[in-house]
Amino acid sequence: MEFLPLLLLLFLCSTVSSYTAYSECDRHNSLCEPPHPNVLNGTLRVAIAQTASNESMLLEQLTKVHGDWIARSAKEGARVVLFPELSLTGYFTANVAALAGPQGLASFANARLRAAEDVLTKACKANNIYAIVGIPVFFDNITENNTRPWYNTALVIGPTGKKEYRQAKLYPCCSQDGAAGEWLDIFNITNFDGSIVPVATQICFDDYHPEIVRLQSMKGAQILFYMSWESDVSLEWKLSLGDKLGSQQGVVPAHASMNQLFIVQTNAGALVDTMSSELDPGYRGGIVMGGSHGQSRVVDPYGRVLEQARVFGQQLIIHDLDLSLCSPASDRMAMAGLGSKVFGAMWREGLKAFGNRMKIDW
Predict the structure, then answer these.
(1) Whole-structure pTM value
(2) Which of 41, 75, 183, 265 lies most in the core, judged by the most C-beta atoms within 10 Å?
(3) Quick check: 52 and 309 in contact, CB under 8 A?
(4) What is the distance between the alpha carbons of residues 177 and 91, in angstroms, rounded to a whole number?
(5) Angle between the 344-351 and 211-218 helix axes, to the nearest 10 degrees?
(6) b/e for 317-334, b at 16 or more Cβ within 10 A?
(7) How far apart are CA 187 and CA 189, in angstroms?
(8) Which residue has the higher pLDDT, 308 or 280?
């Protein structure tokens, strides 16, 4: 009997540590099931392609890799596959600039980029799937006075092979990003059953500007497809925003819950060869930039992380989004801002930006 308290303690500890709860609502307790507004029904199967690349990989090589991931995602029954930021070049300034050739010509760069897009449009059509890929487009030649004449964009390719939407990063934070975009909208995805799902997309550092997703939510987006390429794992800081892992752990679920939409995030995986060990993170001769820190994830409209990838390496996540969790935009907390005496005019003015779409072909 003297061991009974110890046995009871061990039992409780093992029970508590058997799963990780991501919210106050115990996901093993049916009595704590969140509301299902049922604005939409059924599921949307999404694929998260946590890819990784290094500076030595060329556009044409990465295009072939993308085609393979598109085919793999389709075989798993996904309706849409999301790739990381600048996934077709890697998040490297030199790689993007090299597309323009020795003379720095925008026409030369865009011809190569269009050829890559054409390969992927055929892959999407052959596999009946949407793909959202990270790719730059050039708007001018590279000159001494204009060293980064490109936009960092998310390109949406539909299951018919048509390029349907393109959005540029609104808040460039690094030399890889080029110039700031000036367009914003939401767009539709048609599910396998023919139902229409309003969605939006966003690129990396734009996530730290909460007005973007707030406006996208107010406009009716039910899912935010968020692509990123965060700091390399060998970096111990991230733009003075705190711990690189902790900051991303907090921001994405917060946006999902406050704006009551799904967030499907893909972040480039960390390359194993970037770090030799914890004590040898690759600083000799300069920091070795090879990847990001992974942790691609699916977050529901209540801020619950439903699935998350590892930090290192490449991984394909397949997840069925329960669309019955989607709520009408008119009932969302975000809409209260329209009636605010302090912020109402600001939000109304922001909503006027929608419909001003970036042109797709360059």
Answers:
(1) 0.86
(2) 265
(3) no
(4) 8
(5) 70
(6) bbbebbbebbbebeebeb
(7) 7
(8) 308
